[in-house]
Write a structure and sequence with these properties.
Blueprint (H helix, E strand, L loop, with lengths): L10 H7 L1 H9 L3 E2 L4 E2 L2 H5 L1 H6 L3 E5 L1 H18 L3 E5 H4 L11 E6 L5 H12 L3 E6 L5 H5 L2 E4 L12 H21 L4 H22 L2 H11 L4 E6 L3 H16 L2 E6 L16 E5 L6 H13 L3 E7 L11 E5 L7 H19 L18
Parallel strand pairs: 3-4, 3-5, 5-6, 6-7, 8-9, 8-10, 10-11, 11-12
Antiparallel strand pairs: 1-2
The structure holds 6-O-phosphono-alpha-D-glucopyranose (G6P).
The site of 6-O-phosphono-alpha-D-glucopyranose (G6P) has 16 residues, from α5.
Length: 369
């Protein structure tokens, strides 16, 4: 087992550190910066269906659902197609409205999650086109789909998903870029810019991983917290949800993710000097807004940990602790910003003495409903 873990204490840590390579593998053979193009056969075959689609419905569970939520922002922005993000378990039982020609994208690491599988089978009966995004080649969801794209993150052993998530984001971003460009809702200039930003991601992830000692020290400082709040806006909102999920899964600390502006409608009532609030506050079009959200928390004596963009000179004066990540376009930023949150959850779980590879009550894939 020690050999399988490649010298790491846990599979989860190994998989977190593999991400520069796994993200590269997701992009490889698809993203061609030199020629300014993306090649994805499954998408090309169904391009006209994407272009004609009146709506896209995304179905997934768990971490994959967070990838779907991020993709909603990408597809609406780049392709101008309305997107609905559904928990597969809710979608399958409520007799959803599906019209022939609707696109249903199923996102699943294992390709075996029972709720997601049944959801697409139902949608197929209603005439939807199923596009699967799976990590496991030949899995049930991959086989039940009309077309799809694999994430190519390699086998994921850790129960808490890490590298599969970043691979999903990379693949979803490429699809949104490709469809948006073909559809004409995205300029060549923006297409090339995001393409370039995506190509830079693996190197930037490497840089973030080099900060593991800093993140571990922060983790140890907050390891005894009872609750945690994670906040973000825009593309960083799903990142906040995913950070909170990671913490719950492996440290058993109650954690909630929220849109930062929505906190004043509830969670702010919980803020006191005991509560750590993690802000995903990298520089994007919402930056000023999130800075004022941080002020609101500090005014109530909450403890603030912030993921910021390198060179940010404002937030470090307000936050108790900061983790800086390289600057990136906001659309690819989630791939980077989730990395420190994965490490934070990991080190908190370890500091609390838990076996993070075998979190209680959780299964790697849930093949029963
Ligand atoms: C389980 C796993 C999660 C995963 C979810 C969906 O709950 O513990 O890590 O995100 O299933 O799995 P899938 O394989 O469909 O992505």
């Amino acid at each position: 087992a020690a050999i399988e873990k490649g010298g790491f204490d846990h599979f989860m840590l190994k998989e977190i550190f593999e991400q520069p390579d796994t993200i590269f593998d997701s992009l490889r053979g698809r993203l061609d910066e030199q020629r300014g193009m993306i090649t994805m056969r499954g998408v090309e075959e169904y391009m006209q269906k994407f272009i004609d689609a009146q709506r896209i419905i995304m179905v997934a569970c768990g971490t994959s659902w967070h990838a779907a939520l991020t993709a909603e922002y990408m597809f609406e922005e780049l392709c101008r197609i309305p997107v609905e993000v559904e928990y597969a378990s809710e979608f399958r039982y409520r007799n959803p409205v599906i019209h022939p020609g609707n696109m249903v994208m199923a996102i699943s690491q294992s390709g075996e999650t029972a709720d997601t599988l049944v959801a697409i089978e139902e949608a197929k009966k209603a005439g939807a086109i199923i596009f699967g995004i799976c990590n496991v080649v030949g899995s049930s969801i991959a086989r039940a789909s009309h077309a799809g794209a694999y994430t190519h993150a390699g086998p994921e052993i850790g129960v808490a998903s890490t590298k599969a998530f970043t691979a999903q984001l990379a693949v979803l971003c490429m699809i949104a870029l490709k469809v948006g460009y073909e559809k004409g809702t995205l300029s060549r200039e923006r297409f090339l810019h995001v393409l370039h930003e995506l190509a830079l991601v693996p190197e930037k992830v490497k840089e973030i991983l080099q900060q593991h000692e800093n993140i571990k020290a922060i983790a140890e400082k907050y390891a005894s917290a009872r609750d945690f709040l994670y906040l973000g806006r825009g593309y960083n909102f799903p990142v906040a949800l995913e950070g909170a999920l990671k913490l719950k899964e492996i440290s058993y600390i109650h954690a909630e993710g929220y849109p930062a502006a929505e906190m004043k409608h509830g969670p702010i009532a919980l803020v006191d000097e005991q509560l750590p609030v993690l802000f995903v506050a990298t520089r994007d079009r919402f930056h000023e807004k999130i800075v004022s959200n941080i002020q609101e928390i500090k005014a109530r004596r909450g403890r603030v940990i912030a993921v910021i963009t390198e060179g940010d000179e404002v937030v470090p004066h307000m936050a108790d602790d900061v983790i800086a990540v390289p600057a990136a376009d906001e659309m690819v930023a989630p791939i980077l910003n989730v990395i420190p949150l994965q490490l934070l959850a990991y080190y908190i779980g370890v500091a609390r003495g838990y076996d993070v590879d075998k979190p209680r009550n959780l299964a790697k894939s849930v093949t029963v409903e």
